[in-house]
Amino acid sequence: MTFELKSIHPDPSQAHKMPYAPAVHIVGACDLMFISGATASALYHDHPHRDEEHVHPHAIEDQTKNAMEAIKSILDEVGASWKDVVKVTKYLTDIRDGDGMHRAMRPYFGDWRPASTMVCINQLSSPGARVELDMIVALPKKG
């Protein structure tokens, strides 16, 4: 069985303005993978947290890159690509960081724009973390 991901744009002439698709339609059968939130911290770290494992760069672009690299390691593990991501949830501690975060994400996604939600929150799980990303991925059915 195969599937196709289709970006849904009610007004395709305006799509170039958006860093995400208003919706993504999965056509056909697939498996879904839900990626837990990733921050600028290492993917694997102690719990309860130890502060020395959570020293983050200040720039939102650098923090976003760290989170995207952690997610990339998960995608690589299952043979998926950024074009398989159907939904991203972006948590920011300062909504004004949205443009910088999107600039840092663009090289990973290229011309693909998954569906997206961006939320401003009070704080994240470690001091100094400014961005957390979680994703839903569509994968070909196995077997």
Automatic annotation (TrEMBL):
Entry-linked InterPro entries: RutC-like_sf, YjgF/YER057c/UK114
Single GO molecular function: deaminase activity
Gene Ontology CC annotation, any one: cytosol
Any Pfam family matching the protein: Ribonuc_L-PSP
Sequence similarity: Belongs to the RutC family.
Protein name stated in the entry: RidA family protein
Native species: Rhodoplanes elegans
